[in-house]
Write a structure and sequence with these properties.
Order of helices and strands: EHHEEEHEHEE
Strand content: 25-35%
Helix content: 25-40%
CATH superfamily: Gcn5-related N-acetyltransferase (GNAT)
Structural class: alpha+beta
Number of domains: 1
CATH topology: Aminopeptidase
Number of strands: 7
Largest sheet: 7 strands, mixed
């Protein structure tokens, strides 16, 4: 079996992304609240970059986006920062380390730009938390989401961060 390939997302990929997202939502409840317009949800806010994982048949089996971080409160971020968002993997493609591969692709993008990455995940999403911790992310706190769960209850979010690798030092001659 050929492992899925990760490439930049194109506009023509959105229908396939929404189909996978619908499967993930039915199985895992992600996103917690199904968006009114899932195509727009995948594109808002306009991502700095987005990638898809495609299998040998060119079927979308995973997705990740990196959004430019909103202008932070003064002093919140000491370095350039972007947010990882919209990470999901098709239930049929799980067990192939795609979540980690998609996160690694986002980290390469961030490293090329000396940019740290942040993300938030619902406290109860233990599989996602385990993935982030396994791939080097560090939980830096929790907060209550500015939106509610489908039942109207509050949602606690865990905030994770990973620093970009420093650029290689040039040897002095």
């Amino acid at each position: 079996m050929t492992p899925p390939r990760i490439r930049r997302r194109r506009g023509v990929d959105l229908d396939g992304c929404v189909a996978v997202l619908a499967e993930v939502h039915r199985l895992d409840g992600y996103p917690m609240n199904w968006p009114v317009d899932p195509h727009r949800w995948l594109c808002d806010p306009r991502p700095a970059r987005a990638w898809v994982a495609v299998d040998a048949d060119r079927t979308i089996v995973g997705h990740i986006a990196v959004h430019r971080a909103a202008a932070p409160a003064e002093g919140q971020f000491a370095r350039p920062t972007a947010e990882v968002a919209r990470l999901f993997v098709s239930p049929a493609a799980r067990g192939m380390a795609l979540g980690g591969a998609l996160l690694a692709r986002a980290r390469r993008w961030a490293n090329e730009r000396a940019t740290d990455l942040v993300l938030e995940v619902a406290v109860g999403d233990t599989a996602a938390v385990a993935l982030y911790e396994r791939t080097g992310w560090r939980c830096t706190g929790t907060r209550t989401a500015p939106w509610t769960a489908p039942d109207g209850g509050s949602v606690s979010l865990r905030h994770f961060t990973v620093r970009s690798d420093p650029p290689p030092r040039l040897a002095e001659q």
